[in-house]
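Morning F.,

Quick status update on the modeling queue. The single chain you submitted on Monday has been processed. Sequence for confirmation:
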Amino acid sequence: MKTAIIYAFLFFFFIGCAYSQTELTNRVYKIWDDQPAPNKGSDFNDVRARGYPHDEDWMSKSYPIGNGYMGANLFGRTDTDRIQITEKTLYNEGLYGIGGLTNFAEIYLDINHQDPQDYSRILNLNEAVFYVNYKNAGVEYSREYFMSYPDNILVIKLSANKKGKVSFTLRPENPYLRDSTQINAKSGKVVAQNDLITMSGHVNHFGINYETQIKVVNDGGSLSAVNDGDKGKIIVSHANSVVLLVATGTNYKLSEKVFIEEINNKKLDKSITPHIAVSELIKSASDKGFAKLKETHLDDYQNLFSRVQLNLNGEVPEETTNSLLERYKENDKNLYLEELMFQYGRYLLIASSRKGTLPTGLQGIWSASQVTPFTGGYWHNINVQMNYWGALNTNLAETFTPYIEFFKAYLPEARILATKYIQQNNPALLSQDSTDNGWTIGTGATPYIIQSPGGHSGPGTGGLTGILFWDYYDFTRDTTYLREIGYPAILGMSKFLSKTLKPSKDGLLLVDPSASPEQKYKGDNYTTKGTTFDQSLVWENHSDLLKASAVLGKEDDFLELVKDQLPKLDPIIIGKSGQIKEYREENFYSDIGDPHHRHISHLFALYPGTLINSCTKEWMAASVVTLDLRGNKAGGWATAYRMLCRARTKDGEMAHELYERFIKVHVMPNLWSTHSLFQIDGNFGVMAGVAEMLLQSQEGYIEPLPALPDVWENGEYKGLVARGNFVISAAWKRGKASSFEITSNSGGLCRIKYPGIVNVQITDASGITIPHNKDTSDIISFETKKGKSYFISL
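Structure tokens below.
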């Protein structure tokens, strides 16, 4: 009888668990509308675009898809559909002398259905597939669009529920062509032949050859290729269904030479065209066929996206996403939208950053601009780092790989820049062996050029980047990566930063010259000594180096120098207003600089750093004062950063207030974030912010639900990642945790902090009790085995 009772209990227990997991897994996330996206086109009068055309409908109404190599913005129209293509390597002169991302191609489908009924366009985030469905003249039409990473192909299928009803004209264009004598010069032509359109051309500035091919695969009906000068099109008549295959490429090759070569139009080999590579992509995709292409895409994408589920118990709405957003702005809030924003960030990261591609930039992988705002590149005084802050804890570590590959390519130039910087600013410490001068990077960077620190941002920009290299190891525990990439990267940055320090009269070591990003004083960039931004990031990088050296068993004279420098940095100082000082020479808050500036660079020691933590209570309190004084009114990414900082202070209510503000003020109908114009860092920032509210691990232990707001009273998540490579799932009711699941991907000691946890029982998957130590009143620890899962009920 006792055995029967036990089996019955286990049966219902596991049925209950399975039900809970099914509820999480089956939660569908979609962005949708019951009207096609408008397409009014470009506006030269919008001052935000700095004299270049701005496309509001593209920015706020179109839906994005991508595969890391290229992105597409989809309108889902029934008269003339528009598919705008971006490819990460196509850059023109742009702004600031470092080049800028530019529009790759525009593809138009003249469908001529003027009065659709029962219309819907849906971006399904669970599948990364865009659907269009409607009725016209008694016929049901459907379209599917997806961007496959494994096959590097855009696939579009047009079909109808009656035979012979699919007719349209495929009419692509090369946007923004300009004469070779003009700035941003670009040439191109479109040629149609049989079932294939080839769009090719040249961008003068960096010597880029580019090509797009579109293959038309029709079931039934007929095709007719028409050419008129440099413009070609294909007319499709009375097909049952049609599949369009779109491939792109350039002659860009990520390499050391691209960054070291000083003459722009010699960075690439202009004798190389992408024609063969693009043709092979088209042939391979054509041979596979639509069904296999979609299957391969779903297998690849869902392996990443499905790792994390989140349920905040918001109702899945039947209304359009824009209607849901508008009601949220009027304080009729559905928590599903807050879940959707989190998962949308993960979707966008997968779509824009995959191995073998360039990193995700300021606009991810999407730009319809002739000249993309702020170049669309990689801005290193917060923006590119914010793009990847949520990659690791939301179980998408692979998406950071493109930045690692990018770093390895620009490293030789970064070493040259470091030597030049030290020679100019601290020649007494210049080493004749250039590798001993380390490497550096400034704010602006593109796939062609990186800058040195200076002007409005100090050398701490490199230290802020260095944190990413340590965190990647700390979350993955990949010692091969640490030995071959992570440790050399952190070591090189510490070598550089150690030479930016100069002794002061009071025995400290101060970065000189030093600046706090983009702050001004009396109208000019303010340069000084030892800003909190620079000092704290030297501390973070030096500390990460010592942790990495301990893992690898490294010992040398430079590590001893680092140990000597650390206590002389004095990185955090509290001012007379109770604030974290931004500048050593300030007394009261806002003595220097804009008191409500979008940047809060003196809080990088709080997030993403670890210097300010729960053990430094005075510093933590001063961080709260600083956040209060800075205020919550800021642009998109800046609001996301404030949210992250509030999460680190364990203030769930304020973190959620900022999340609400972000959604209400800085989110467009397509859920892209805006900082006056579209910038994707805000999407990634709040994604990281939600994860940080639900799980933290930066203080030597795992802390589930550290900043849980009252509005998230009941919920559960599965698959977030903590440092140590522990995958965490949690459920809670009425604001209190009810259960945790910990999967140890690398083995080792697991430490968990939660109120009242010391008396819990820990079991493994077999139900065997696992002994644990009571480290403090709220922290326990226990040994784990690689690949094993552990369960805690509270």
